[in-house]
Amino acid sequence: MNFRASPLAIAITAAISATPAIAETTERDSATLLNQVTVTATRTEQQLKDVASSVTVIDSEQIENRHVKDISDLVRYEPGVSVSGDTRTGPGDFTIRGMSGNRVKIITDGVSQANNFQLSLTRYINAARNFVDTDSLKAAEIVKGPASSLYGSDAIGGLVAFQTKDPADILKRDGDLTAGFAKASYSSVDKGFTETVSVANRSGQLESMVLYTRRDSQETETYITNQGDVFGATKRGEANPADNRVNNLLTKVQYQLNDNHRLGFTGEYHDTLSEVKVRDASVDGTTSDDTKERSRIGFEHDWDNAGLAAFDRLHWQLDWQKTTTGMKTLVPAYVADYGSFQRPYPEREQDYNYEEKGFQLHAQFNKELGAHGLTYGIHATDDKVSNKSVETNLEDGSIKNKDYIPEVSRNVYGVFIQDEFQVTDKLTVTPGVRYDKYSYKPSQRVDGMNFEDSSDSAVTGRLGSVYKLDNQYSVFAQFSQGFRAPDLIDMFYTLDNVTYLIQGNPDLKPEKSNSFEAGLRGGTLYGDFEITAFYNRYKDFIDTVAIQDPKYPWGVTRAENLQKAWIKGVELKGQVFLDELADQLDGFTLNGSVAYAKGEGEVDNKKNPLNSVAPLTAVMGLAFEAPAGNWGSELLWTVVKGKDESDLSSSTSFEAPGYGVVDLTAHYKPTDEITLRAGLFNLTDKKYWAWESVSNVAPGSNNMDRFTKPGRHFNLSAKYEF
Fold it and tell me: What GO CC annotations are associated with the protein (predicted)?
């Protein structure tokens, strides 16, 4: 592949090459790429320039200015990170550097979120993981690469950490007061209206807040929007008609007992209702009625300045959480043509429910011992996972209970320790290790089958270092390990359908990984940058294999620890402060990021590309903030390379073409209390497919237009603060 120097690369080179005479002054009043603060990468508060891994921080200002309304929008301008989804369930799973689904851990305020639960043979069962409302967030952090040594199972591919707003984020000032905001927005892409209101109060040492968001929308448009009521798979490109509703409630109460002790209570409730007319199905008249709910109640305690031999600071929290997904599908009567025979199906209703509920306990201790900063703690999860699937024949009233896995009691325990060791003024070394043990205890509730208990454990380590070359530049490197406990569906999902058999495998071993990452960072008067190279090696990957059995003409499938895989790549991000280059460019900043990755999986000594790896992606932006601080704008250009046969695991995958998309956003404050925002997206009305939406779509499909992203559309919002 041939690369040419882009304007972004040239500008970053200029920033790197700042002359020593003027490069000694590198501090700016405004936020820069490398002085953003992360609390996730090392479980301690650090600036990005001081951590030994690649981390992205997205704050509430970026969320609002870029009109983020869901998790897909959240990572729209983050190369190497994407969100998959479909037209029925909406945004679903994060993909980070080619790792997706339950291989990426999601936490909200330190609480692990529910796993995805999806059956490959049916579209009627898909418990996605989108249970957060972006209007409630003050920040989102993305750790790229394995984070199991600090966060345990499911972080083998990375970590997404959401932080919800606190009362202080609404109050903003000291003293006793009441403050809040009201915000309304409209999105043309789904005819969506959103209203958010929040009120916070401080009375003495007591702070409290409530935040409520309501969203009402229709289907998200595809590029094709004029096919009316056309039904069927042939050439259909318009999205399925849908009506969506979201409610999100966040409440917090925090009390400062004294200088050293602070107590906190959090209550969260999130529900989503989606009604869809599934016109792209093989059966005319199919409709769905889906619900998603998440409830959380949490208590936390911070103890600062403890001065004990064991710790200087303690944070612990106990949370109860319940997550439920319900998918109800009405399927009219039809006759299925299987070629050699036909089979009639009666009108029926599929009613599927999946639930996770239980407690999570987390405690973290910090201790300063000279040049050593110790962080250690425990994490425990005790919950139950269940599903209930009922199929009702609407013609004769008969009912079939089709539970796909038994009810499972799940216990996960982890202990970890990390040492941030300041070896010299220039060198910091951070070793860490974690031990995790998990156990699954299934009931015997699926067709009388017997299921054995399953348990296993894993030890994961991490060694990171940052070396400051001088006041401007530093290098960093990290070796980290990851692991992931097997999904319940792979262990216990068993279905005997006469012609085929799906077997659960309770003997599955955890997936494991070794990851290497190294990079260079620099910050000068003219800008800052970070370039990272990574190599991730995975083993005991869980994949589905086919087994020949004469009793089942369509075969037997079973999950096995078979696959090995590796992913390597390079990422670059940076910004150039154009106002430092010319007085006429006061307020202008040039931003950019690029991500390239390549991966292969190996089964039975046969190597194939990993379809989950995103194509080469670059995002370039020109931003302006008025010196008076009352208005600003940003022009963003996203460029994605197309996928070809060499990137795909088989010829049965769609070769998504490359594309370039231009977006423009602006914000204006006519008064201190009012902020108006507008955004115009896909400015050139480009027709394109996002790879994460079509990676599993066959190229011969007649309705590929149904998977296109929206054409030109706009967002508007107004916010009043008091």
Answer: cell outer membrane
User: If you search the block for the tokens 């369930």, which residue do you land on?
Assistant: 89
In sequence order, the β-bridge partners of residue 548 are: none
Query: Alpha-carbon Rg of the chain, whole angstroms?
Result: 26
Residue 463 φ/ψ, nearest 5 degrees: -140, 115
Tokens encoding 504 = 């659960």
CA 94 to CA 140: how far, in whole Å?
13
Task: Return d(Cα 608, Cα 380) in angstroms, integer.
Answer: 38
Which parts of the chain have pLDDT scores under 50? 1-11, 13-26, 228, 231, 233
Smallest Cα–Cα separation from 15: which of 663, 574, 664? Answer: 574
What are the start-end ranges of the H helices in 563-696? 691-694
- Mean pLDDT score across all residues of the chain: 89
DSSP 80-127: TEEEEEETTTEEEEEEETTEEGGGSEEEETTEEPPPPEE-TT-TT-EE
CA torsion angle for 58, 61, 67, 71 (degrees, to 10)?
Answer: 30
Secondary structure of residue 585 in the 3-state scheme: helix
Model pTM greater than 0.85? yes
CB 318 within 8 A of CB 298: yes
* pLDDT recorded at residue 46: 92
Rounded Cα distance between 384 and 88, Å, is: 26
Write down the pLDDT at residue 234: 52
The whole-angstrom separation of Cα 672 and Cα 720 is 9
Closest CA to 575 of 565, 588, 558: 588
Distance CA 96, CA 118 (A): 20
Residue pair 197/181 in contact by the 8 Å Cβ criterion: yes
Contacts of 104 (CB under 8 A, 6+ apart): 93, 94, 95, 96, 154, 155, 157, 158, 159, 160
The token duo for 187 is 């999105």
Q: Tokens 């096995």 sit at which residue?
A: 560
SS3 288: strand
Mind listing the domains of the chain with CATH numbers?
7-721 (2.40.170.20)
Tens-digit pLDDT profile for residues 504-549:
888 899 999 999 999 999 999 999 999 999 999 999 988 777 777 8
